[in-house]
Amino acid sequence: MKLMRAVALAGIAKKLYDESRKPENQARIRAATDRLRDRRRKTG
User: What is the pTM of this model?
Assistant: First the structure.
């Protein structure tokens, strides 16, 4: 059972890694992190 879970998690991690390497997704990730930083600066 643990082996199947590990295989599934590895597959999900690879998919996320592959998607995050695409330039349009990098821009979205960068924009999201910038919004989070701005929010933290305003509250704290």
Answer: 0.58
Angstrom distances, CA of residue 15 to CA of 7, 34, 42, 43: 12, 24, 34, 34
Q: Evaluate whether 31 touches 25 at the Cβ level (below 8 Å).
A: no
CB 20 within 8 A of CB 29: yes
**pLDDT number for residue 44:** 65
| CA contacts within 13 A on the Cβ side of 15 | 6
pLDDT tens per residue across span 18-27: 999 999 999 9
Q: Which residues of 4-15 are buried (b: 16+ CB within 10 A; e: fewer)?
A: eeeeeeeeeeee
